[in-house]
Amino acid sequence: MILTKLTGLRLLAIGLLTLGVGTWAGSTARAEAPTDGGTIVIGDSNGAPVEVPVALFGDIAVTGPWARATNAGSRVGGVYFGIENRSASEIRLLSVATPVAQATALNDMPLIDKVARIVPVEGGIAIPPGGKVELRPGGLHVMLKGLTSPLRPGARFPMTLEFSNGTSADVEVQIWDVGAMRIISQ
Ligand SMILES: [Cu+2]
């Protein structure tokens, strides 16, 4: 259902581009497949090494997208990854779409009066020029809302990231155990 909707939207976008309509062409360019940025080894919650892929989209490197598995009744999930901005200007992650969820949000979990609260990130997640940002449990994250099916350990799902420089990046998210922790930056 969601896949059909996305395909429909893309066809609509292509149709509009063909007609020469829309100055938003830059941000609706067809999603890019990454070039291979190799792998890096990170640590998991038990200190065990885990090899994760680095996907390159021009000046943007996306490292090891992962999600925690969800229980059958759960309708929400979280997705985490590292983003590196290799350009000389700030780039913002504006939005995320995936067929496994009806909606997504970019959230943070700051401590407010010593209590962790979920707050939306206004204007997208900014990655400074030459800088790195990591989405991780307890911090910045992609929230999946209205899961269309439970996230099962070992499975993967596709996700498209929209950046402020017009890059539309297709990545694969690996699902790990419910309590898993992965730390990408070291
Ligand atoms: Cu959230």
From TrEMBL:
Pfam families reported in the protein's UniProt record: PCuAC
Matches recorded under Gene3D superfamilies: PCu(A)C copper chaperone (2.60.40.1890)
SUPFAM superfamilies reported for this sequence: DR1885-like metal-binding protein
InterPro entries xrefs: LpqE-like, Lxx211020-like, PCuAC_sf
Protein name, entry field: Copper chaperone PCu(A)C
